[in-house]
Amino acid sequence: MVSCPVCNQQVDISIINEHMDNKCTPPANIGIGNHKSSKNTSPNKSPLKKIVITAKNDFFTPKLETSSNTSQSIQSPFPDKREKRFFERSISSSSNRPNKQIKTSNTKVDTVPLAARVRPNGFEEFIGQKELVGINGWLKELILRDKVPSMIMWGPSGVGKTTLARIIAKLTRSFFKEFSGITHAFDEAKNEQKLTGKRTIIFLDEIHRFNKAQQDLFLPYVESGGVTLIGATTENPSFKINSSLLSRCKVFTLNKLTTDEVKSILKRAIDEIRKQNIQNSQSEESNTTLSENDDDNKVDEDALQCLAVMSDGDARIALNALEIALNMKSKKRITKDDIKNVFQKSPLYDKDGEEHYNIISALHKTSLYWLGRMLTGGEDPLYVARRLIVFASEDVGLADNSALPLAIATYQACQFIGMPECEINLAHCVTYLAEAKKSVRSYKAYGLVKETINEEYNHPVPHQLRNAPTKLMKKLGYGAGYKYNPDYKGSVHQEYLPKELNRKVFLDVFKPEKRDYVRPKEQNAEVEIKVEMENYKEIDFNYPFDEFGESSGTHNYDITDNQ
Ligand SMILES: Nc1ncnc2c1ncn2[C@@H]1O[C@H](COP(=O)(O)OP(=O)(O)OP(=O)(O)O)[C@@H](O)[C@H]1O
């Protein structure tokens, strides 16, 4: 018995050709390109490319959608002749097949997520990853020559791994299978090779989810060359892929998309929505929000920028947020505030950190005035002590490094002693902090870091700073050229920041003339700090911020050596 490559049924090998010519019908879950190019054509004789993609909910491409029934209506988007040839072949092989996933022109596209609707169909729509799939990209070359090697595509979410695999599906002459669970696809591939002599490319999304024992099962198939495996993963393959499997695959790394690249993707999506709206409005009532003729229906440039920055290089997040913003608005124009709103309200941007940033922000805004009033007003002394810990770093900072341990000790004292005696500890600490020298250098520098990160926080870590615990990572250039400081006598000059970063802002704050060491009041005038234990009064925490010049204090070589 063999598995029929058209309908997947188990069929006696002696009648497989007869079965395929007369009896079998494709299963419902076959997406683009089921095997049956023609009822009367045996697969052995078919000159056409055959692609099988197990259907997934989000599998939908607008170009194919509008032209799934006639190969003539499809305009090849490929400038390159070879791409064009493969593209046309793929269309002709898939055009005369029933396809549950492909929508007819009357079907509403709004139910399909925007990200899926605007998924690129070919290299010309694929943004970024120039080294791999740009004009002279070497992976593109391999794909166009139909020499796709087994590979692992490694990259963060939403940068186009699945999209690229599907472009390969369109351009390859091999069978193409996509699945994300354990199936018999490998056996089927073997059967198909026996029957048709064609290799199969198997795409495994999230390959890291297969455990090592399961990955072992793929080995003989990849080894024998009957199957080309394409795995996609967001995890480091060195740790998540069997070394034996890894050594049989090439690893391609896809980089996080830059803000500009995400913006290009968004702009293309907006154009696509416009086109779809025009089509929709011609045939039926449209409930989408952009239209060609409506000047109000625009996404502001700074809204686009914000969207691109906040999605942190993940095109899917950006497209989903855009879609939500468009659907949320009854008014026309999408502004930066709308986008911020989406990210605040929707769970799609819950990158472990939302709450974390809120907390930091709240801490930084806290004020220490009116200690007495707070305590007499019944404030929790531990709350006050926590504020003092913040004060110690935010205002005293590097000018007096004993402030922070004292503030922490005060907190513990409050825990041990409790009210009312812990007032004494609080008063002690408050007085010390008030009299201490002040520096807001680290606080300000960190403020600048945050500002910069808001604008451009998706730069990759420079290769020389990355750890390279595995061979693969070394091969990819991780840690290459790193100068290990203890090996050098003098100061070490090397790059510690992403090269794309606008570093001027950082360097400025570390210039001697920008250092804002300050003295407490006592050095200029008399200090008047009164902490009256029985009758708490407002405490004046104001102090003059005069410049102190260069200090003898040490600072890290990491920033200054970059100059
Ligand atoms: N490089 C790109 N060029 C154009 N559009 C892209 C690109 N990358 C992603 N997109 C858009 O984002 C959507 C999601 O991309 P895709 O599914 O390819 O990401 P992925 O890298 O496989 O992510 P994951 O690891 O989360 O599965 C696509 O449907 C497409 O609309």
TrEMBL record:
<dbReference type="GO" id="GO:0006310">
    <property type="term" value="P:DNA recombination"/>
</dbReference>
<dbReference type="Pfam" id="PF05496">
    <property type="entry name" value="RuvB_N"/>
</dbReference>
<dbReference type="GO" id="GO:0005524">
    <property type="term" value="F:ATP binding"/>
</dbReference>
<keyword id="KW-0227">DNA damage</keyword>
<feature type="domain" description="UBZ4-type">
    <location>
        <begin position="1"/>
        <end position="25"/>
    </location>
</feature>
<dbReference type="InterPro" id="IPR021886">
    <property type="entry name" value="MgsA_C"/>
</dbReference>
<keyword id="KW-0234">DNA repair</keyword>
<comment type="similarity">
    <text>Belongs to the AAA ATPase family. RarA/MGS1/WRNIP1 subfamily.</text>
</comment>
<feature type="domain" description="AAA+ ATPase">
    <location>
        <begin position="147"/>
        <end position="257"/>
    </location>
</feature>
<dbReference type="InterPro" id="IPR032423">
    <property type="entry name" value="AAA_assoc_2"/>
</dbReference>
<dbReference type="InterPro" id="IPR051314">
    <property type="entry name" value="AAA_ATPase_RarA/MGS1/WRNIP1"/>
</dbReference>
<dbReference type="InterPro" id="IPR027417">
    <property type="entry name" value="P-loop_NTPase"/>
</dbReference>
<dbReference type="GO" id="GO:0003677">
    <property type="term" value="F:DNA binding"/>
</dbReference>
<dbReference type="InterPro" id="IPR008921">
    <property type="entry name" value="DNA_pol3_clamp-load_cplx_C"/>
</dbReference>
<dbReference type="GO" id="GO:0005634">
    <property type="term" value="C:nucleus"/>
</dbReference>
<keyword id="KW-0862">Zinc</keyword>
<keyword id="KW-0547">Nucleotide-binding</keyword>
<dbReference type="Pfam" id="PF12002">
    <property type="entry name" value="MgsA_C"/>
</dbReference>
<dbReference type="GO" id="GO:0008047">
    <property type="term" value="F:enzyme activator activity"/>
</dbReference>
<keyword id="KW-0067">ATP-binding</keyword>
<dbReference type="GO" id="GO:0008270">
    <property type="term" value="F:zinc ion binding"/>
</dbReference>
<dbReference type="InterPro" id="IPR008824">
    <property type="entry name" value="RuvB-like_N"/>
</dbReference>
<dbReference type="GO" id="GO:0009378">
    <property type="term" value="F:four-way junction helicase activity"/>
</dbReference>
<dbReference type="GO" id="GO:0017116">
    <property type="term" value="F:single-stranded DNA helicase activity"/>
</dbReference>
<dbReference type="GO" id="GO:0006271">
    <property type="term" value="P:DNA strand elongation involved in DNA replication"/>
</dbReference>
<dbReference type="InterPro" id="IPR006642">
    <property type="entry name" value="Rad18_UBZ4"/>
</dbReference>
<feature type="region of interest" description="Disordered">
    <location>
        <begin position="277"/>
        <end position="297"/>
    </location>
</feature>
<feature type="compositionally biased region" description="Polar residues">
    <location>
        <begin position="277"/>
        <end position="291"/>
    </location>
</feature>
<protein>
    <submittedName>
        <fullName>MgsA AAA+ ATPase C terminal-domain-containing protein</fullName>
    </submittedName>
</protein>
<dbReference type="Pfam" id="PF16193">
    <property type="entry name" value="AAA_assoc_2"/>
</dbReference>
<keyword id="KW-0863">Zinc-finger</keyword>
<dbReference type="GO" id="GO:0000731">
    <property type="term" value="P:DNA synthesis involved in DNA repair"/>
</dbReference>
<keyword id="KW-0479">Metal-binding</keyword>
<keyword id="KW-0235">DNA replication</keyword>
<dbReference type="InterPro" id="IPR003593">
    <property type="entry name" value="AAA+_ATPase"/>
</dbReference>
